[in-house]
Amino acid sequence: MQALEETLHKPTEEEQLEETRRHNAAVRIQKAWRKKMRKQYLGPDFLWTDLAVHARMKVDRNAAEEGKNTTRDRWRRSIFLAGRLQDGNDMLSKGQSNHPEAARKHLETQHWLELIDG
Length: 118
Description:
By secondary structure, the protein is an all-alpha fold. The chain has six helices and no strands. The termini are far apart.
């Protein structure tokens, strides 16, 4: 019965305008929040550091696949990976465990520990 009433009730122009205002306000709030979070966690320094780390990881991975697995090379890679765990993580250290990336970062840390330990 309620579904029938909803389909028969056509919103007035004022109701449509109010719904549009609410939608636009929600979009603005979401954009502002995302901008704040992006600045907080993805500043230029972080992005450059992350780029350098990923490049080094790719070079190390390619070297391992090509057979450059001397003891010295393996230790160098291990030290680099262990150092990555000690870099700290603002996302987890600020007690914001409800952040969407926090669970993924925690899982990533567990995988690194298992990789180095195994």
